[in-house]
Write a structure and sequence with these properties.
Structural class: alpha/beta
CATH superfamily: Phosphoglycerate mutase-like
Helix content: 25-40%
Number of strands: 6
Strand order of the largest sheet: 4-3-2-5-1-6
Shape: globular
Number of domains: 1
CATH topology: Rossmann fold
Radius of gyration: 15 Å
Order of helices and strands: EHHEHEHEHEHE
Number of helices: 6
Amino acid sequence: MPPILHLVRHAQGLHNVSTSNHILHDPDLTALGEQQCSDLRRRGSPSSFPHQQIDLVVASPMKRTIRTALLAFGETILEPKSLQVVCLPELQETSDLPCDTGSTREELEGLFRGQAVDLQYVTPGWDRKIGRWAPDREAVQARARQARVWLKNRPEKEIVCVTHGDFLHYFMEDWSEVDRTGWANAEYVFF
């Protein structure tokens, strides 16, 4: 039986504050983004995450998605179950803007050293927007399909997937040629 998927758009990143911040390479969260993670984590708050039966937390290997996963689910899911955030490059954002281009595995290892982050799937070249990582429609559709298959074939019963607004439209196959995502920061759905 396929797992239940909880799809989460990352919390507010520095690039979400102003389009002038799109020049920032792989930006981290803002203070508001950290608060949004706290709201997801807190039980009983209007925006708190609804389910605690999570077996796996997967995220795009970008700073803002990894940080969202750690801050939102670390205390409630990762630590009690000794889980790690599994970083899956297929979940990266769709454009080649600096803000949507990831850091190297070595940079991520240094930044998240000692934290519950699994970078085994982050291979050389994932952070270059060419080939399978290119920002063209066919490549993004293929990545979304690969991510769906990977998640569907997992043995876990309930999975959190932290990714990006534009990519979520490709993942859910609901893209309607709009120029912006319809997802709010830290918004989630499950199915």
